[in-house]
Amino acid sequence: MFIILLLPLLVLSCLGKPKKDTKVNGVIKIGISKVVAHPSLDLVEKGIKDVLEGKNIQIEVKTANGELATADLIAKNFKISGKNAVIGIGTLSSQSLKNINDTTPVLFSAVSSPEDANLLAKNVTGTSDKLVCVDKQLKLLVKCFPNIKKIGVLYSNSELNSVSQVNEIEKQAKKLGLSVVRGGATNSSEIPQVAKNVLERVDALYIPTDNLMVANISYLIDEANKVKKPLIASEPSSVKQGALFSYGVDYYELGKKTGSILLEILNGKKPSDIPYVTAEPKLYVNKETEKLLNVVIQE
């Protein structure tokens, strides 16, 4: 039996204390908290569900819409309702689940830096989309555009994961003689002005695995393409939407790995005995953007 429950958060908050879920007729109850809906994280969710399909598992999915208070409320409701395990998709949701559920098994997925996010604990494990090939991305960018001197990095300055990624990009860029212009935003309304200011000063844009920026990637791609400046991304869904290229993670496979780890835990293995897993990136290229920028991307 495979049941997916999508409950409006407002309804939950108005119901007061939910009736405690217990394992009824052998049904295992799992809660999934997703920080925001966008293509990469949606693929993680699908991968998890596909692995669990056909099992005697009931899944409740909620989305925090990028809000910490909402992520915390979701985590509290999962704890009160007695979920057998919970999964966070994205850093913010994973942090809330870990902070509020100190004994229930917690899995994270699509978290770029579990260490910086302070997610590692005895009841926590999962999968990471950690950037392991920043140097390859930048070297390929310079190979295709030898005259590039400055790159802009747009990110959410309220996400520790994003800040750590920007630091790594800056470190690798320096080795190649490139300078980095940072463009931090705290919400979507700030992105147009931040993007405009950065694009005027740089030769290319680099978007890390940042939920705020990926949720607004179509706008960023349009703005970069208008001025014929390459935008490279860190995940393949952005390439499908028009980013030039990415050494990115297959987020559907990342979700499947997360689901497989959950099954290990449900079969009796302790989260502390399962190291978190990182995915192997591969190159994705948008052919239409290649033509627009009059370039051929080759490794």
UniProtKB/TrEMBL annotation:
Organism from which the protein derives: Sneathia vaginalis
Protein name: ABC transporter substrate-binding protein
UniProt xrefs under InterPro entries: ABC_transpt-TYRBP-like (IPR007487), Peripla_BP_I (IPR028082)
One Pfam family cited in the UniProt record for this chain: ABC_sub_bind
Top-rank taxon, per record: Bacteria
SUPFAM superfamilies cross-referenced by the UniProt entry: Periplasmic binding protein-like I
